[in-house]
Specification:
Shape: globular
Strand order of the largest sheet: 1-2-3-5-4
CATH architecture: 2-Layer Sandwich
CATH class: Alpha Beta
Number of domains: 1
Strand content: 25-35%
Helix content: 25-40%
CATH topology: Heat Shock Protein 90
Number of strands: 5
Largest sheet: 5 strands, antiparallel
Distance between the termini: 40 Å
Number of helices: 4
CATH superfamily: Histidine kinase-like ATPase, C-terminal domain
Radius of gyration: 16 Å
C-alpha cells in the first residue's frame, strides 16, 4: 500500500541549498534597500544573469517588507540579513529579520495594479520559480525566493 502524497503549500516547500555567493547585514531602515539591491547586483553569479533586473526587484520587495512589517524595521538598531546562494541551476535569495508577532507573510487575494503598496509578495510569487518563508528556531523569520536558470 502506498502513502498518498499531500501537496505542500509554498511556504512549506523544502529548500534547496546551493553554495553561498554572499551575505550582508543591513540596518532595518528604508534607505538600506538601495544598498541591498546594489550588493546583490554586484555579486559574481548574479551580475551576468539575464533576469538580474527581476532579482533586484524581488530583493527590494522582500527587504522593504522586512523594514515595514518586522521588528527589524520598527526598533532602533534593527537588522536584516540578506543571503544569496547560487549554482548553475538556481539562484536563491533569503531575507532574515527579527519577525513580528502581528504579521505573517501572505500574498493578497486581490492585487490592485495601480496601488503603490501591497503587491510585494504577489510579485515574488509571480516572478520567482518558487518562494516561501519559515520561522527561525532562534527567533525571527526568513522569507526566500528562487530563480531557476532557463535551460533554453
Amino acid at each position: 500500500m502506498s502513502i498518498p502524497r499531500i501537496p505542500r503549500k509554498e511556504a512549506e516547500r523544502p529548500a534547496s541549498r546551493p553554495g553561498v555567493l554572499g551575505t550582508i547585514d543591513i540596518p532595518g531602515e528604508l534607505r538600506a534597500i538601495a544598498a541591498a539591491r546594489a550588493y546583490v547586483r554586484g555579486l559574481p553569479g548574479v551580475a551576468g544573469r539575464p533576469d538580474v533586473d527581476q532579482v533586484e526587484l524581488l530583493v527590494s520587495e522582500l527587504v522593504a517588507n522586512s523594514m515595514q512589517y518586522s521588528d527589524s524595521g520598527s526598533r532602533p538598531c534593527g537588522m536584516v540579513r540578506l543571503v544569496v546562494r547560487g549554482d548553475s541551476h538556481v539562484l536563491r535569495v533569503e531575507v532574515s529579520d527579527e519577525g513580528s508577532a502581528g504579521t505573517i507573510p501572505a500574498v493578497p487575494a486581490q492585487v490592485d495594479p495601480l496601488s503603490e503598496s501591497g503587491r510585494g509578495l504577489w510579485l515574488v510569487r509571480e516572478l520567482s520559480s518558487s518562494w516561501g518563508w519559515h520561522e527561525r528556531a532562534a527567533g525571527g523569520r526568513v522569507v526566500w525566493f528562487e530563480m531557476a536558470e532557463d535551460p533554453g
